[in-house]
Each structure stands twice: as C-alpha cells, then as structure tokens.
Amino acid sequence: MQEYQLIATAASGIEALVGKELRNLGYDTRVENGRVRYIGTIKDVLNTNIWLRTADRVKIIVGEFEAKTFEELFDRTEALPWENLLPVDAQFPVEGKSHHSQLHNVPSVQAIVKKAIVRRLSDVYHRRTRLPETGALYPLEVAINKDHVMLTLDTTGDSLFKRGYRKAKGGAPLKENMAAALVMLAHWFPDNPFVDPVCGSGTIPIEAALYGHNIAPGINRSFVCEQWTNLVPDGLADDVRDEADSKADYDVELDIHGYDIDQNMIDIAQENCRAAGLTHDITFKQLAVKDWHTDKINGVIVANPPYGERLSDKETVHELYRQMGKIYRPMTTWSKYILTADLEFEKYYGAPATKKRKLYNGALRTDLFQYWGKKKR
C-alpha cells in the first residue's frame, strides 16, 4: 500500500495529546502548532480516524512549497500528482486560509489552486471539456502561512468530535474531543471512581466510559474517505472497524457518575448515554454540587462548570466555585480537574491549583485548574 504524509489537526493546547495517542497506536510523530505529522497508508488513515479521541481531522498532505506570487502558486500546484488521489469524476471543492503571507486574498488563492488542479487532471485524463465533478467528494484545503503553502486532502468529513451519540444537547456543550482530552489529562484509571458534578448533556462521563472500555470513538460513524473507491479497497473499512472492536474491553466494571442541578439536562444526558450504548456504565442523577458527598477514595472529578460570562450570572457561578472548594478541598485522595474561562477560579475555590493548563474551547481561552490528590494504597 502506498504511504502518505499525514497530519492530524487539533485545537490549540491539545496537540501533545494527539501526538501521544498516535504514538500509542504505533506511529512516529512530529508535533507542531495545531497539528501532528505522521506517515501511513490508507489503512492507517481509516485506523486513526476511528481511534483518535482528541484530534479534529486526519488529512493527507498532497504537497508543500513556498509561493509569493499567483504564478508560483499555480505552477507548483499543477506540478503535483493529483491524479494519484483524484479520479476523473471527483468533486473537489477547495477551501483556503492565509496568514502573514504575500498571497492574502483567500478567494483568489482558492480559485488559482482549483484552476491548476483542473489543468493537471484535464491533461492527464485527456479532457477537452469541463471535468464532470459528479463522483465522490474529495475536500481540499490550501493553507498559506508566512508564504509556505500546504495543500491537503481531508479524509474525515464531519469533524472527529462528531461521534454520533449526541442526540440532544444543552446550551453550550463541550465538544466530544475536548471532553476526551479532559479525561486523558486527568490520568484516570478505570478501576477508580469518576465524577462529573456539572455534567450537562453528559459528554465528559460518556467520553470517560468510552476510554474506560477502550472503545474506539469513531467506530459508529463514517468518514468521507470511505467513498473513495479508487483508494480504499472494498471491505477495508469494515476490517479496520472489526479490528478496533476486538480491542474493546466491554467486561471492565466502571464507577462513573454524572450529576447536574437541572433534571432536564439529566434527561438529555441519559438519552445521549443510551445512544452511545453505555447505559449500564454511567449513573446520571439530578443533584446540586453542594448536596454531593462520598466515602469513596482515590477518585477523579472532572468538571466544566458555567463560566458566568454575563454579569448577572457571575455571583451565582462564584458561589458554585465556593461550594466546590468547601466540598472538594477536604477530599485529599481525590484529584480534581476544573475547566473554566474564569481566571479568578482559585480565589473563589479557596486554594491555588497544583497546576494550570491553557486550553481553547473553540475560540474561547480557558484554563484547566488541576488539584492533584494523594492516592491511598
């Protein structure tokens, strides 16, 4: 099988986790801002789409070069072997972005790249008329940064955070891959208790259960590359899914709880949990933060509480942070991981974090306040 230069794209602050995931899957990696590079075949493309919990997309790098003029962009794009990826009837829309570059007009950049690919394919396929573009979708992107051009083919389609289980959601739900990142950053072991005290639509507990059972997060969804009959041998996607399914441990018993003060959110969380096939693994219950207590030890709390962005909500949210501190501070064997955009969180919680980590929830800067517990043997 032909090997490709690949990238897994990721939210800012998550790249190292994506790199770790890829290394655990057996790939050599190079972590860069917003992406991780690796090499693989089309089977590896399918495998990493199915397995990556924290990435956004898997892309094939078609080519990279420097370009400061439209002529350079056209000639170097046309020189690439597009026929190795795109059949004669391929639909290939071109998206673009440009930062700190001479070629900063994105619509023009997209049009030039499209024209160059059309010229190349028309020559190779001996087409005198327009290319039909009636076949499978091959989404392309031209990204220019400091005059360095990267041309990629997206193999994923809908972003990897769309696992397929979220049938309903609340106001501002956390993306599934960010929730998975929080679970992984918490260094939780599946034989220990896991609690989300403000679970909303249930995303963090569901991602914890998928992780705890070693269930591949993309196993129940499809990817755009599965339609590429010129590149993906018949039956390969099913084989990769079967292989992934064989690695899941459905027998491990998990102690995962999700709580929320709003019964409506608990109903939504339970619906999503059913869609994920995890109803026996997670207990959801309507409960306020201040009313929770436990005698269990060595647990992990992962929470994405409200941020109180509106002035009218701020005092309510700060009171919530105070309640968290009052209840969680004495729980010395438990580790607590709280994600919030409120940089004054520690003041209201009542204790400085062991460590803080900057993460981006979409475009919003947030901090993960980490309070490490001392495990009791």
UniProtKB/TrEMBL annotation:
A Gene Ontology molecular function term of the record: methyltransferase activity
SUPFAM superfamilies attached to this UniProt entry: S-adenosyl-L-methionine-dependent methyltransferases (SSF53335)
Keywords, ordered alphabetically: Methyltransferase, RNA-binding, Transferase
Alphabetized InterPro entries for the sequence: DNA_methylase_N6_adenine_CS (IPR002052), RlmKL-like_Mtase (IPR000241), RlmKL-like_Mtase_CS (IPR053943), RlmL_1st (IPR054170), SAM-dependent_MTases_sf (IPR029063), THUMP_dom (IPR004114)
GO terms classed as biological process: methylation
Short name of any one Pfam family annotated for the protein: UPF0020
All residue ranges annotated as the THUMP domain in the record: 44-155
Name the record gives this protein: Class I SAM-dependent RNA methyltransferase
Originating organism: Limosilactobacillus portuensis
Lineage of source species: Bacteria, Bacillati, Bacillota, Bacilli, Lactobacillales
